[in-house]
Amino acid sequence: MIISRQSFIRPFIVSLLVVSVTSSKVLHLLQHASSLPGSQFALYLPTFFIFEALLCVAAWGLLFKFTGVKSLLGTAVTVAVTSLSFILSSSQIGFYIVTGSEIRWDAATAVGNDPEGRKLMLSGLRSFLGAASALLLISWLLKYWIYTLIDHWMSALFSAQTEKTDEEGIMISPQRKSRAARLTQIWTICAAVVIGLLRLTRPQVPYNHMSQTIPFSFFQALGSRPAELHQTGDQSFPLPDLIDEPYWEGPHDHFKGWTPGKPDSNTKKNQPAWASGNLPPGFERWGKEESDRDEEESDTLKRNGTSRNNIYSPMDDPLRITNLDREMLEPIARALKKHKVPITHVVLVLMESARKDIFPFKAGSHLHEQILSSYNTQDPEILQRVNARLSNLTPNAEKLTGEGSGFSTNHNISSPSGGWKDPTEPGMGGINVNGVLTGSSLSFKSAVMNYCGVGPLPVNFMDEVNSQNYQPCIMQIFELFNQLKEDSAEKGRSITGQYDEQDKLNKQMGFQKSIYSEDIEKQSAKYYHEGMEEINYFGYPEYEIYPYLQDVVNKTIENNERLFLSHFTSTTHHPWGTPAAYHEEQYFAGDGLMAKHEDINKYLNAVRYVDTWLGDMMKVLDKAGIANETLVVFVGDHGQAFPEDAPVSGTYENGHISNFRIPLVFRHPLLPALQITANATSMSVVPTILDLLVNSGSLNERDSSAALDLMNEYEGQSLVRPYQATHNGRQAWNFGIINPGGTMLSVGSAAVPYRLILPLAEDFEYIFSNLDTDPNELSPLRGWSLEELIGRVQRKHGDKAGKWLVDAEKVGKWWIEEQKSLWNYQ
Questions:
Q1: What angle do CA 435, 438, 443 make, to 5 degrees?
Q2: What is the rounded distance in angstroms from the CA atom of residue 177 to the CA atom of residue 86?
Q3: Same domain (yes/no): 339, 217
Q4: Domain of 538: which CATH number?
Q5: pLDDT of residue 412
Q6: Tens digit of pLDDT for each residue in 316-374?
Q7: Which residues make Cβ contacts (< 8 Å) with residue 187, sequence separation at least 6?
Q8: Cβ atoms within 10 Å of 282's Cβ, excluding its own
Q9: Tally of CB atoms within 10 A around 751
Q10: Helix/strand/coil (H, E, C) string of 177-211?
Q11: What pLDDT sits at residue 502?
Q12: Is 381 helix (H, G, I), strand (E, B) or coil?
């Protein structure tokens, strides 16, 4: 075979297409291979490559079997398809290198439409370029081999003799190959028949998803919404025996009663005394017009435990379990009676990617063991030096939570303001809650839960901004208090306002004033200065808002106002950048291993940076003299998985427990230092704040009456009272939206240690874990169908776990539709 030097372009195009689509499919299959029995995977393996084979053969034909204008058109089409496949495959491989996960093109295009989202995508440019370079190199090396293989196969399949030459100058000596051609035809036909039969008889799930081919899957994602498994529309509560009339509860005091499904149970005939006049945004359902509409439409209300659109009724919620009828936890009740615990101001700090196991970082944790194991030594001197560095990681988190790290104290803090020395008396400092899970691993869905006490919308990204919150947010409640008396409030926040329509969300939730990175970077900004350093695609280091924070606090004192302030940290967000002058420690072993642990090492340095910042925030309150009358709530928006924790890193389509365990602290110097455990979600933040405000005597009589009434409207329980895991056979269910929101749902219960990852689309597995026996989810059980998973769960964990799994799937599917109804989602 003689090949002309000018004949490499078209063979290279074919080779690039073959390598791109094949590498994409191989990666796709490898990510799912472990979830299937090896025999089934091997049996159906040929069916996964049907469309790739057809696409490559068609491209070969368009390039080499036409002449003239048809050749030009065929070449243009093939180049376009090849270029797209090459870019998509490089993106898929690059995304896998960064996250260990699989890219979804519908979500990628949505992120790409957001300016800040494009910055997020560009952070993976290095991995993309590396993958693209590898594909180009492999394609170049294999170009003639791949061309020759396809040419010989097609020539033998469709003719008995090859051509003497083709238009690219590839000369092949004519040989009689009739016998070889017949054998090729026979084997091709047999293979096609067998593969076709396997394709027709294989199960749809998960094999249809595993057969998806770039670029077809890309165009499919552009043209339609992701197919949902559980789009069942209106439905009754799936466990009706638990909400029968014998379990109904009558109203008393501020408790509205609990009568799910009872006719006229959620018709508002008696408006509370505070619900008069022009109510603030968020209180529409208490207005007179809404109340009249309730009366007119009472005969059309949905029954059997399902709410009406955008109207939440605690009386009709079959999942609601309240603990407001229980006495407050004894140490808190005793402190409130013995000492005055004023709460004039409330500060809520929402901490980006704050895993519970780093707030504070503890000796003996899974992450600590991973760090020590990277050194591969038992040398006590080396391990002592490592632990000395780790002891300085989160000293302020230790003070705020009251939890010891387990390391010997060696806190050398370096910060612009000299570090924070906690002035709180021993045994005091507030409530640290263990066991809390976020309700969403997407930051702003989590923010809605923390500020408004509502469940998020289980669809991709922030469709919440296109609806109205079905509960008033804490800022709107404070505005109600202001209207009941002639007072004012100052509110502030700091982070970029452009990503995922956060600025719209803040206005919707009731923030009167916000400070974003877009504000402080203007030359007209009060504290603008040269050399402001952007550390990631979301903005600047936290310390850039330090003077603004001081101004807000000082202004509050000067005007004798009550303050609600919220701050959203950002340094611990990917890519975990810190200022250039900040000294970064190496926590994991070196010697070439740092590349493996580079991301989590950067994350830990960002954690240390933010820990110092939190201490300096507390110093502002101490210096202003308002610390003893300020409730500071520290809560994580979600966690952050790394390869050291799970096969998939990041929060995107990753239900691993490290993405869900978060810290929650209610800090007040005059409250007792209390460690409590509650398998709750951050939906409890708002009712707990209100409970503390009322019982600390920090509200006047009218505000207290309104707060007591509103506390009974929320789904979450108060965390300063004994948490009710069960009530009359019902469980306190917990739900967690998995980033980006519409693909998977985490379902758990405060009554048991079990956890289910419920797929909302056909291309995801069911995943079950028992957090008692596997707290770090190192070996969860998986199945492509619920029936398959139930059998595995029963064999390993018993019939009780299998029964819970069945109920969890039913309740999870019901909750999804209920949330869509509450958010008026169409």
A1: 150
A2: 35
A3: no
A4: 3.40.720.10
A5: 53
A6: 999 999 999 999 999 999 999 887 899 999 999 999 999 999 999 999 999 999 999 99
A7: none
A8: 23
A9: 16
A10: CHHHHHHHHHHHHHHHHHHHHHHHHCCCCCHHHHC
A11: 54
A12: helix
Q: Distance between CA atoms of 761 and 107, rounded to whole angstroms?
A: 13
Low-confidence ranges of the chain (pLDDT < 70): 1-7, 106-124, 159-177, 223-234, 264-270, 288-310, 409-418, 485-513, 516, 537-538, 591-595
Do residues 20 and 215 make contact, with C-beta atoms less than 8 angstroms apart?
no
Q: Which of these, 784, 811, 792, lies nearest to 203 by C-alpha position?
A: 784
Amino acid at 236: S
Q: Which residues of 159-196 are buried (b: 16+ CB within 10 A; e: fewer)?
A: eeebeeeeebebebeeeebeeebeebeeeeeeeeeebe
For residue 820, give the nearest of 325, 464, 432 by alpha carbon.
464
Cα–Cα distance, 634 to 394 (Å, whole number):
14
Q: Determine phi and psi for 95, rounding to 5 degrees.
A: -65, -40
| Strand order, beta sheet including 744-749 | 733-737, 744-749, 754-759, 766-770, 781-783
Burial (0-12, 13-18, 19+ Cβ within 10 Å), 545? buried
Q: Does residue 210 fall inside a structural domain?
A: yes
Residue 576 forms part of a structural domain: yes
**Both structure tokens of 612:** 């110092």
* Pairwise CA distance, residues 461 & 443, whole Å: 10
Domain tally for the chain? 2
Nearest CA among 131, 101, 237 for reference residue 652: 101
Could you tell me which residues come within 8 angstroms of residue 321 by beta carbon, excluding any fewer than 6 positions away? 717, 724, 726, 727, 730, 732
Pairing type for strands 733-737 and 781-783 reads unpaired
The enclosing H or E element of 143 equals helix 125-158
Query: Which among 223, 243, 262 is the end of a domain?
Result: 223
> What is the residue range of 425's domain?
332-361+411-562+569-585+599-662+671-723
Which of 175, 199, 223 corresponds to the end of one domain? 223
Give the whole-angstrom CA distance, residue 495 versus residue 183.
68
pLDDT at 657: 97
For the beta carbon of residue 697, count every other beta carbon within 10 angstroms.
Answer: 13
Strand partners, 176: 161
Are the beta carbons of 160 and 178 closer than 8 angstroms?
A: yes
Does 775 fall in a domain?
no
Length of the chain: 826
Give the span between the Cα atoms of 334 and 329, in whole angstroms: 9
Task: Let me know whether 341 and 218 are in one domain.
Answer: no
Asked if residue 739 is part of any domain, the answer here is no
